């Protein structure tokens, strides 16, 4: 059982006396926030979309074990990244609680939280120094016989060691598996501390490239794992937060960076809506991904001819299926699902408005040169994802214009137009339900009940 205590979040010193509550929050800082300095100043919107596409591809391809050469030739596909970063606080030193406060990639596709530690060799550069785990009085090593010393763990200097590939499987981290005291914020301005949470202490970190800033200005120190496996804080804190976390993503525009979304855990993870709007999900302790039962896709009222096999989970190596991943900027669909969707959208615009694709725009596979006023005034087709709930049957998620298309005028020097914001990957996938398509939906993960709930919501006004 984890020891709880409360503290003033901004100072992390004074112990406070507030009623026990099983809830905390994390800020979801966009990877292109100026504070992170990951993206160079002067980066154009076109370059930003290309970068987000590469992040999406990188996250999709890391699940693939057999890759063709044309999928790996672009170096940017090899980045270790996520759309969102969070900032944590952990460790106790000389009465200073939560003295180390790193930025970590927020990753629902990874279980273990890890950070680069002092004494690493090799290391990636980090602007504010590595975690001095030997100075933290709350850090302890996990014993080899501990139930959470799970494969592929190994003997590291007499205690449990961990080893993880990351990104495109060229990057990897190895080191000590430890336990540490973590400090989380709460909505009320105070916080909560949990002791004995797992923390990977990275001492051998190879080939890490956190997007475009790989030098001394890099602020990303590791990964915050939010998968469903046993090593995730979601599972470790199950008695307290009941496997619940939620978020409401704001539009992926430069304007939304100023007020990043918030991820809620435990009692704070609430959603309003009726019970039929639930999507069944699989909780995979050994892999940590969140798989959804997608059966088919419709454009308007026309159900596309897509073999549902492409969305089914391949339980042998988890390289095929339909996974929800807020760390992927855009939705990725396998070719056999993407092509029918693309063709139906082309047919809709051609029949309704006489619009034909413009292959010269280039950022995405399907783009149009159309005046902004026509984009604003015209009706666009809805795309419906048909999910299955094992109790209620079919559950539909209707995606409108703002979840499927985006104006691309600035990207092309004032040449007005828009693009279809879904990216194609080779069969068999995997298919990934990305952040752009989740915008303005309140999403609740309920791992304890193997369910995912959603409801449309204006996330800028009510997150």
TrEMBL record:
One of its GO terms (biological process) is proteolysis. GO terms for cellular component: extracellular region. GO terms for molecular function: aspartic-type endopeptidase activity. InterPro entries: Aspartic_peptidase_AS (IPR001969), PEPTIDASE_A1 (IPR033121), Peptidase_aspartic_dom_sf (IPR021109), Plant_Aspart_Prot_A1 (IPR051708), TAXi_C (IPR032799), TAXi_N (IPR032861). Keywords: Hydrolase, Protease. Residues 84-455 form the Peptidase A1 domain. It comes from the Eukaryota. PROSITE patterns: ASP_PROTEASE, PEPTIDASE_A1. Belongs to the peptidase A1 family. PANTHER family: ASPARTIC PROTEINASE CDR1-LIKE, OS07G0603500 PROTEIN-RELATED. This is Peptidase A1 domain-containing protein.
